[in-house]
Write a structure and sequence with these properties.
About 55% of the residues lie in helices and about 15% in strands. By secondary structure, the chain is of the alpha+beta class. It folds into 2 domains: about 45 residues, no CATH class; about 70 residues, no CATH class. A hairpin with a 5-residue loop joins strand 1 and strand 2. Helix 2 packs antiparallel against helix 5, helix 3 crosses helix 5 and helix 4 crosses helix 5. It starts with a strand and ends in a 5-residue tail after the last helix. About 5% of the residues are buried.
Amino acid sequence: MQTRNLKYNRSGTVDMEIEHPKYGWIPFTASPNDSEQRGRELYAAAIAGEFGAIAAYIAPIKTVEEENASIQAQIDMLERQQLMPRVTREALLGIALQQAATLGMTETQLADANTGFRKLRDFETSIITLRDQMVAIK
């Protein structure tokens, strides 16, 4: 069987084109775990170098917009998991800090005394860290 354009993919398997007798050159992914024996054989032959060199996998480069969208999706997922949208989180933190100040407590003392506040503050810090990774688009 003729093959060409071998390259590793993100999963570590090998993408290639094979020459089909009826359809000509078609894409194929060879895997050591293929359900078909022929797929496993093609993978083993490719790894053994029988079809020539296998090009390295090159991850696609994300645009700024794509990277920002990915970060925002992470933030949205975290907020949904915690049932804690930004407006609620910021309000609760603000109220807790105001009450602590009234009692003469520092933020550190409040965090030491109140596990819920500490967890909420840590969650907010993780969201801020993610937001800081976003790139401003001009």
